[in-house]
From TrEMBL:
InterPro entries noted in UniProt: Beta-barrel_TonB_sf, CarboxyPept-like_regulatory, Plug_dom_sf
Compartments where found: Cell outer membrane
GO cellular component term of the entry, any: cell outer membrane
Keywords: Cell outer membrane, Membrane, Receptor
Signal peptide: none
Protein name per Swiss-Prot or TrEMBL: TonB-dependent receptor
Length: 810
């Protein structure tokens, strides 16, 4: 019996060790999978190595379809590095692996075999722009402070970008008007995709490219490319900037849900496979209803206004025969705000005397199709239709005593903008060093604008219609782009973009584009880009007119395109695979800008470069000619560290000057010439693992705390001098000429975002508090003459706003 004791003890020891291993909780994990392909031809790249680094190192290889899969990846943040022989290696930073959702990544590589360390790219497809390009991911939108889940608000953290009013996402890029920015969805320009387009504007009327909230929730967005100058040949109809949004595909293997509630609204998203899991067919749908709208149903208002919006978005991904991919998508939404005149005893400003109703609707839908034609050619096509409509009605609840009979008692503004675009392109790999992309956009544009100003006295001279007209025509934009890499250190692009708009004969231009990048040494790159660009005029500029009874005649329908030369010189130093330092110097010369034909002390300083609202010009129209010019020049510095070892930062600084010139030959400061802008965004995460008391197959629960801060300090924009005498007794503000000579105070703001994220075996959740303008700084937006108070009144931007949100992924 005694001689058996060692055997019994050994069995007991092994058995105890077995139970100890069983009782040890497994690390919480999730699947990371995706596809690697040639970014120029969409051909899958089999045999590519895919490595996830930090906190652990995991490696996989793609199969013949370019697909890779890493199962049971521990929850955390990673950098994903993809390498393939004959292609530039690429590192995707800030990959977040959570327990509630699979991480699905599509990575596009470009041929090159450069000698420098792998380039950090946050998105999945490298952008063709060699300069002035940024990539914005949904994960950043959820992490950075004060974004309102909107890529345009996050873009203000980058160099050269300033928000014109923090009530909305109207942004001025390198001193340009916000109207110079265009929005694209799935590679096609669309109408303004924002709710509450009148937010934060001087006349409470909508703008062409901004609003209070983006209609596309971050739940639905994939990679967004943000371009600020010297655009590639595929981009047209802009002289200022491009916000190029893409929709992500739903999970094609399992069903997932996201529920988020906060001050922005109630957000519900669902995605999953259509049919057999793993077939590539998937759906993604998102619905959102504003929190302010929910409070409005309970009778709660904000500054006397009832504000609400809602939207619905759908994206279907359907593989087809021959390795083709069809994507069908649609988005629709509506928004509005209502202000009801206050009782006489509560009236303190002119606005309190009015009933004001603003309504807007927006929709976009279409399909995209991508199909490889052999190993060297890819065909891409899309059909996208978008449209928006807005209306604003303002009237006195009761006419004030002594109101002038010719004064405006009722204002009505209505606008409709519809775009239908068919586009097709071919990407051809001519050799291992040369790629050609050629295509065209064919767009039917129809813009209707009506503005009525009704006097108190129906017999007054002032007519009811200030403007009522339509801008319609075909916008045709063919383009071609040749990419050539003669050596590992050089990369050259040359192309052409042609613009013609059938609305009038003067709207056409051939636009050359050229850019080059040279790798001075590993990790150090010099780039140079030039482009000639053009943009259509806003409908309010084309349609502005004088009353038929006037002795003068205004007809601006013959105006041509506004044009601009862009020149950008850049230097990038890749300090580490996750950090870089970048400097860009740029010069932009605008010409053929609409300015006043009559050159006198009153109208001589007018330029369309200073316009912002859609009907800002129609009330006091001028006869315009394409005789003006402008120049924007500056230097931008960016120092960015992606989230690595639980720390990230983005430090940017800009020095710039924006001027314009009219027929009198005088150079003046532009309205959006802030001269300088600085941003510092810093964030830190702390992660802990909690072990549950249960045994068996229990897994650790991961908790992460995040603290993110952003500081902004920028020079103030300019305002016009108010003509107090002319404004007295009127219902709108009158100015002394059109020159912007009064500089507003510098803009200063601090934002703070704190979040707590917890990952459980089958779901994850996040609780966040976003303290916007945490110091409650009163930044001046503009000044106006208040007829009720009979004095000039400064208008300020938003004060402190606490935004509490809860997010659940499962």
């Amino acid at each position: 019996m005694i001689h058996r004791l060692p055997f019994v003890f050994a069995c007991f020891y092994l058995l105890a060790g077995h139970y100890q291993l069983v009782a040890q909780p497994k690390p919480l994990g999730q699947v990371v999978r995706g596809r690697v392909y040639d970014a120029s031809t969409d051909r899958p790249l089999g045999g590519a190595s895919v490595a996830l680094g930090a906190p652990s190192l995991l490696v996989a290889y793609t199969d013949s379809s370019g697909v890779f899969r890493l199962p049971d990846v521990p929850v955390g943040r990673y950098t994903l590095t993809v390498r393939y022989l004959g292609y530039d290696p690429q590192t995707t930073a800030e990959v977040l692996v959570e327990s509630g959702r699979e991480q699905v990544l599509d990575v596009g590589l470009r041929a090159g075999a450069r000698t420098l360390p792998e380039t950090v790219v946050k998105g999945q497809r490298p952008d063709a722009n060699l300069t002035s390009a940024q990539t914005i991911t949904p994960e950043q939108i959820l992490r950075y402070p004060a974004t309102y889940l909107d890529p345009a608000r996050l873009a203000t953290a980058y160099a050269g970008v300033v928000n014109t009013n923090d009530q909305a996402n109207n942004i001025a890029i390198r001193g340009n008007t916000p109207n110079a920015l265009i929005w694209r969805l799935e590679g096609v320009e669309i109408v303004n995709p924002n709710h509450l387009g009148n937010a934060g504007t001087l006349g409470d009327r909508p703008t062409a490219s901004g609003g209070g909230v983006n209609i596309l929730s971050a739940q639905l967005l994939g990679t967004t490319r943000f371009l600020t100058g010297a655009f590639g040949p595929a981009y047209g109809n802009t002289v200022g900037g491009v916000m190029d949004m893409n929709l992500r595909s739903g999970n094609d293997e399992r069903h997932e849900r996201i529920v988020q509630a906060g001050l922005i609204g109630l957000d519900i998203a669902a995605e999953g496979p259509m049919g057999v899991p793993g077939s590539g067919r998937s759906y993604l749908v998102n619905y959102r209803y504003s929190f302010t709208g929910l409070l409005g149903l309970l009778g709660v208002t904000f500054g006397g206004e009832a504000i609400r919006f809602q939207d619905l978005s759908v994206s279907l991904t359907l593989p087809t025969h021959g390795r083709g991919l069809l994507k069908i998508f649609g988005v629709t939404g509506n928004s509005g705000n209502v202000f009801t005149a206050l009782p006489k005893s509560d009236q303190v400003s002119a606005k309190d005397l009015y009933n004001i109703r603003f309504r807007s609707q927006m929709g976009a839908g279409g399909l995209t199709y991508v199909r490889p034609l052999g190993a060297r050619v890819t065909w891409r096509s899309a059909l996208v239709v978008s449209g928006n409509q807005s209306s604003r009605y303002q009237e006195f609840a009761q006419l004030p005593v002594g109101f002038p009979p010719n004064g405006i008692a009722t204002q009505v503004d209505q606008s409709t903008n519809v775009r239908a675009t068919l586009t097709s392109s071919l990407g051809v790999r001519l050799s291992g060093k040369t790629t050609l992309q050629a295509g065209a956009y064919l767009t039917r544009v129809q813009q209707n604008l009506t503005a009525q100003r009704l006097p108190a006295d129906t017999g007054a001279i002032l007519p009811p219609d200030v403007v009522d007209g339509t801008v319609t025509g075909w916008l045709v934009e063919p383009y071609a782009n040749l990419q050539w890499q003669p050596s590992p250190a050089w990369f050259i692009q040359a192309g052409l973009h042609y613009t013609t708009f059938s609305y009038n004969a003067r709207s056409q231009l051939l636009e050359p584009r050229l850019s080059a990048r040279y790798d001075v040494r590993p990790g150090r790159t010099i780039s140079l880009a030039y482009g000639l660009h053009s943009q259509l005029q806003q409908p309010g500029v084309y349609l502005a007119q004088l009353p038929p009874t006037s002795a003068s005649i205004i007809d601006n329908t013959g105006l041509g395109l506004t044009k601009a030369h862009h020149l950008v010189l850049g230097y990038t130093h890749q300090l580490t695979p996750s950090a870089y330092l970048k400097a860009e110097a740029y010069y932009q010369y605008l010409f053929d800008v609409p300015v006043a034909l009559v050159n006198n002390s009153v109208t001589g300083a007018f330029s369309a470069l200073n316009l912002s609202e859609t009907t800002e010009f129609v009330e006091r129209p001028l006869r315009l000619v394409n005789g003006g010019s402008g120049r924007n020049m500056g230097l931008e510095i960016t120092f960015q560290q992606y989230l690595t070892k639980q720390l990230y930062w983005l430090l940017t600084g800009s020095l710039y000057n924006a001027e314009y010139r009219t027929l009198d030959g005088t150079w003046r400061e532009s309205r959006f010439n802030g001269r300088y802008a600085t941003n510092a965004t810093v964030g830190r995460e702390w992660t802990t693992a909690a072990t549950p008391a249960t045994t068996g197959k229990a897994r650790k629960r991961i908790q992460t705390w995040g603290l993110n801060a952003r500081l902004t300090y920028a020079g103030g924009f300019l305002d016009r001098t108010i003509d107090v005498t002319a404004s007295q007794g009127q219902t709108s503000t009158y100015y002394v000429g059109y020159a912007y000579t009064n500089r507003l105070a510098a803009y200063a703001r601090a934002d703070l975002r704190i979040y707590w994220r917890k990952s459980n075996p089958h779901y994850s959740r996040m609780l966040a508090l976003d303290l916007q303008n945490v110091t409650d700084t009163h930044n001046q937006a503009y000044s106006y003459y208040d007829a009720f108070q009979r004095k000039i009144v400064p208008q300020y931007q938003l004060g402190i706003i606490p935004v509490l949100s809860y997010r659940w992924e499962f």
